[in-house]
Write a structure and sequence with these properties.
alpha+beta, 3 helices, 9 strands
Length: 164
């Protein structure tokens, strides 16, 4: 399964960042993986479901909180989006590591693919490698205001991807 991770340092306490991330409506503000969260609870708990719209999709889908450890770890998984080649279920994981000067935020994307979509895994991974650092800089700027964060991206093996 493809896996892409990126890190960014945010000059805010981990509890403030976690509070922002646990409201899935905020995903649409900084992430290209969600267009809009339409309904669901504001504060995420394990198993909570949301109705959302993914980019390029007309119909609504489910977004489920699959993990929630306050101020440390949070994960959401999208419902299986059908395509003519198979299904795609994106999973977003957030890990927060507090430090004296703020918080290191690590976001991992695991696109679960089946059917013919498996053939497209390298392209899906390439797209996330391109987009995730930009999205994390947007998240950090949104949370920290004027700070200029550095985003670092790694693939599922922990190595930095090459830029061509």
């Amino acid at each position: 399964m493809p896996h892409v991770s990126a890190n960014v340092h945010v000059s805010r306490p981990a509890d403030e960042i976690f509070s922002f991330l646990r409201d899935p409506r905020n995903l649409a503000v900084w992430s290209s993986s969600i267009d809009q969260v339409i309904e669901g609870p504001i504060s995420t708990e394990l198993g909570d479901e949301y109705t959302c719209k993914f980019p390029g999709r007309r119909r609504m889908h489910r977004l489920t909180c699959t993990a929630s450890t306050p101020v440390e770890y949070l994960a959401f998984r999208g419902a299986r989006m059908w395509t003519p080649l198979g299904r795609h279920s994106p999973e977003l994981e957030f890990r927060l590591s507090p430090s004296r000067k703020g918080t290191m935020v690590t976001v991992s994307v695991k696109p679960h693919l089946d059917g013919g979509m498996i053939i497209l895994a390298p392209f899906v991974t390439m797209a996330w490698r391109r987009d995730l650092p930009v999205e994390l800089r947007c998240l950090a700027e949104l949370l920290a205001g004027e700070d200029r964060p550095d985003a670092d991206t790694t693939d599922g093996q922990g190595a930095a991807p090459s830029v061509g």
